[in-house]
Amino acid sequence: MNYYLLTEEQYKELKKENVSFMRKNIEETERVVSTTEKIEDSKRKFYSNITLSNYTSLNHIKWVGDGTRIDTEEIDEEIYIKELDN
Amino acid sequence: MPNIAKINNVQIGNVANINGIQASNIANVYGIDNYIEPSFSDSYALSKTISTGTSNAVYFVDSSDTFNFVGGDAWTISFWIKAGWSSSLNTNIHFVVGHKNNTSYQVEDGIKVLYNESNNRIQVRYGNKTTSSNTWYKDGQWLFHANSGAYAAGYSAAGLGSSYWSATNRGYVGDDDFTMITITKASTNLASSLKLYWNANSAGSAPIQSNAGTANVNVIPMSATDDRLWSVGARGKYGSLDQDKAGNSSATLYNDLTIWDKELSASEVSSLYNSGTRMDATTHSASSNLKGYWQFEGNGNATVSNHNFTIAGGSNTTEI
Fold it and tell me: Residue B309's CB: how many other CB atoms inside 10 A?
């Protein structure tokens, strides 16, 4: 699995059928995703779900409103469906 | 005849022989002197602070196996909730969580009911996890803002429209802006056994279901004997995580939590909803299956069961 931070523009180009996890930031200007697709021009690439989670902890003001983080269990457990993009 | 408790709906003029009964021993004969008010009152609710940690938690440990449901059990968890979080929560808020006491994993002997604000869905999961790779779980998720296909039932049940659930968009509510959320589970050990009700409105089985994990449910079944820690308004205590995911913005209110050892039917859920007015659950037609009942009338004590919630720190019961 590959983990990325993407801009909205980069996300639009993503093949959604390969996405298993997606989360918008609070301002809805960026997204973190897990996908089987390899992306060369992402804003940031994370080594694992743990480093992605750590990133959201360091930047929690941007990503979660309760001062915590996106947990690895959320990254692993959440199921992406296209209706969430509506 | 000293033990007549109820003569409901009988006109006093038609009662021929009640000579010798002290009026104080007759509990419910409407329209006569010495009428005793029903004991049910509903003036307070639980206010779960957004401050986290055990020192602010609402919890009890079940050491008597009263709520030790396993995969093949039917059960119902119902509670009234008044959302306090804002649309910038962007993560989960955990409503009711039960898991093995002193564990590394939330889903070890676990049942959890949460709202995933970032994706506007209620998620219910139960299962077991004994190591990082040895786990099974059944998971149901109900999306609320997509009025199409399998998601239309949740959209119609909640009344949130296209906006996400929050303190400024509570959807369909009963008295005092509380919503009754009810999760029922049939005895079959599959995600399809889970159903969600928003007030008396059925959202049906989960449109998103997952029966996942590497472990065989028969090899690591949920334990019927391990002590479990039950928490309200936060995600429990396991590993390094300690009663967090409690919301943001302002305290969420919880009221009249009930746990049943059967799958309540749609009509029984509707009866419990009582047209939006919280009722005395001990008078419900399924009360023989009512295993836990917490009214939060000034404290965390149980009306049914012997398990009283500890309400710590900034959490408290507040007048509605």
Answer: 22
Cβ-defined contact of A65 to B50 (cutoff 8 Å): no
What is the least distance, in Å, from the CA of A85 to any CA of chain B?
Answer: 9
Q: How far apart are the C-alpha atoms of B202 and B195, rounded to whole Å?
A: 8
A70 at interface of B, judged by CB pairs closer than 8 A: yes
Range of B202's domain? 44-319
Burial-class residue B150 by CB neighbours within 10 Å (0-12, 13-18, 19+).
middle
For A:10-39, CB contacts with B below 8 A are: 23-26
Q: What is the pLDDT of residues B45-56, one digit of tens each?
A: 999 999 999 999
Interface-testing mutation among A83, A84, A86, with chain B (most B C-beta atoms within 10 A): A83
Residue ranges of chain B whose pLDDT lies below 70: 1-38
Closest residue of B to A81, CA-based? B208
Within this chain, do residues B186 and B305 fall inside the same structural domain, yes or no? yes
- pLDDT range class, residue A5, cuts 50, 70, 90: very high
- Which regions of B144-262 does DSSP assign to beta strands (E)? 179-185, 194-198, 201-205, 208-212, 228-232, 237-238, 241-242, 252-260
Is residue B11 domain-shared with residue B112, that is, in the same domain? Answer: no
Are B25 and B50 found together in one domain?
A: no
Question: Could you say which of A65, A73, A81 has the minimum Cβ distance to residue B89?
Answer: A65
**Which domain CATH number covers B183?**
2.60.120.200
Q: Which residues of A touch B116 (CB under 8 A)?
A: 78
Give yes or no for B50 touching A (CB within 8 A). yes
- pLDDT for B219-232, tens place per residue? 999 999 999 999 99
For the entire predicted model, the pTM comes to: 0.90
Q: How large is the greatest C-alpha to C-alpha distance in chain A, in angstroms?
A: 32
CB-based contact, B170 to chain A, within 8 Å: no
Residues B16 and B92 in one domain: no
CA–chain centroid gap for B291, Å, is: 12
